[in-house]
């Protein structure tokens, strides 16, 4: 039997658990003039952000959505985003027909050829070119969705967001009632979103609607484990509790139990922890500022009260700032029941810190 769990980012595997996080976006975008045009899918690494983004892309790339005029693009944050989207848009049928009409001086049956826009100038600025292409497509009844995974404050991302802010202000009829149907969905971790949102001319990004990943449902995980791993209900619940609802842990621990079912419990958990530590926690730790690391080291052995943590810090006055950041990152518990406490929420993360982080 094929392993139903997956370690591949963005893939769901056959043991996938639906979260329904995409529903808010689908509902909003179904309106003629959606109330939100930009969404940030935020969460700690391994919490399922890329899966949510992938589900959204597949939805809007479906034949049904294409008939509604949707054009969807999955862009890499590591490339020149503006040039990449220009390349994608240039391949669309409406754009190719427009280019052919200009080059051959042949009139084709396109309702938007009267736009007074020329694409002949190859030396035109990327910002102007992108706006031209968008204008042509929107006049042709298209809606453009751009998705970017794992965003960071890079020169390319900052430049693109600055241009996109202008596109959001454009209107189809000039009276303020019909903004351009252009949409942006990004996924990323808290500190990258925060840094990008602090750029002076990117206020729209800072204020964008947020969709935060949440722990998987314990009963949903237990049921999957029971069915897929062929274990009894009690064992399935025990395994599910180990994950603490963390998406990557759910996949990795499930995969280890499936792959090494003939091995001892200790062996299975060591394999799962090794995967978690090397492929997820190491990157999370390396991206953390020193102040946040200090608090996590203090509570790595278990939850502690605020005053206990402050007394062990080099400068306890900074506790509130660092702990708030850790909560926003999804690394410390943030609920009414955890008030006044500092508690790590990721499974075995404290063990990783104690063993491998000086």
Could you name the key traits of this structure?
single chain; two-stranded antiparallel ribbon; 358 residues; 9% strand; 5-stranded parallel sheet; alpha/beta
- What's the number of helices? 17
* Sheet with the most strands, sense and barrel status: 5 strands, parallel
Within the largest sheet, what's the order of strands?
2-3-4-1-5
What helical percentage do the residues reach?
40-55%
Low-confidence stretches: 106-115
Task: List the helices and strands in order.
Answer: HEHHEHHHEHEHHEHHHHHEHHEH
Tell me about this structure.
By secondary structure, the protein is α/β, with parallel strands linked by helices. The protein contains 17 helices and seven strands. It has helices at 23-29, 49-60, 63-67, 81-90, 93-104, 126-139, 155-169, 190-197, 203-206, 218-229, 233-243, 247-259, 265-286, 290-298, 306-312, 319-329, 349-356, and strands spanning 38-42, 70-76, 143-149, 182-188, 209-212, 304-305, 341-342. The chain has a five-stranded parallel β-sheet, sandwiched between helices. A two-stranded antiparallel sheet has the order 6-7. It starts with 22 loop residues before the first helix and ends with a helix. The model is unreliable at 106-115 (pLDDT under 50).
Would you kindly provide a brief summary of this structure?
The chain has 358 residues and is α/β, with parallel strands linked by helices. The chain has 17 helices and 7 strands.
């Amino acid at each position: 039997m094929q392993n139903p769990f997956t370690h591949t980012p963005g893939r769901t595997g056959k043991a996938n658990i639906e979260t329904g996080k995409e529903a808010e976006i689908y509902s909003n975008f179904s309106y003629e003039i959606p109330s939100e045009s930009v969404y940030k899918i935020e969460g700690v690494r391994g919490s399922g952000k890329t899966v949510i983004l992938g589900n959204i892309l597949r939805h809007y790339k479906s034949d049904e959505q294409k008939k509604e005029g949707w054009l969807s693009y999955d862009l890499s944050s590591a490339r020149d985003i503006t040039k990449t989207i220009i390349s994608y848009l240039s391949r669309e049928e409406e754009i190719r027909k427009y280019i052919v009409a200009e080059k051959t001086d042949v009139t084709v049956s396109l309702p938007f050829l009267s736009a007074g826009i020329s694409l002949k100038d190859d030396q035109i600025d990327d910002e102007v070119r992108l706006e031209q292409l968008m204008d042509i497509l929107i006049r042709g009844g298209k809606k453009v969705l751009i998705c970017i995974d794992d965003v960071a404050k890079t020169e390319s991302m900052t430049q693109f967001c600055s241009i996109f802010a202008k596109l959001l202000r454009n209107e189809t009829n000039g009276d303020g009632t019909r903004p351009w149907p252009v949409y942006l969905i990004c996924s990323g971790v808290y500190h990258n979103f925060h840094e990008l949102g602090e750029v002076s001319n990117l206020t729209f990004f800072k204020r964008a609607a947020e969709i935060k990943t949440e722990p998987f449902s314990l009963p949903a995980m237990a049921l999957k484990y029971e069915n897929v791993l062929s274990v009894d209900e009690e064992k399935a619940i025990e395994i599910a509790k180990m994950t603490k609802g963390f998406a990557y842990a759910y996949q990795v621990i499930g995969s280890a139990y499936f792959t090494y079912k003939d091995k001892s419990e200790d062996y299975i958990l060591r394999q799962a922890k090794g995967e978690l530590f090397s492929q997820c926690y190491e990157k999370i730790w390396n991206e953390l500022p020193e102040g946040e690391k200090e608090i996590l080291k203090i509570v790595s052995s278990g939850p502690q009260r605020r005053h206990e943590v402050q007394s062990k810090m080099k400068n306890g006055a900074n506790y509130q700032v660092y702990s708030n950041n850790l909560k926003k990152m999804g690394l410390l518990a943030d609920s009414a029941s955890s008030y006044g406490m500092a508690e790590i929420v990721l499974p075995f993360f404290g063990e990783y810190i104690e063993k491998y982080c000086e």
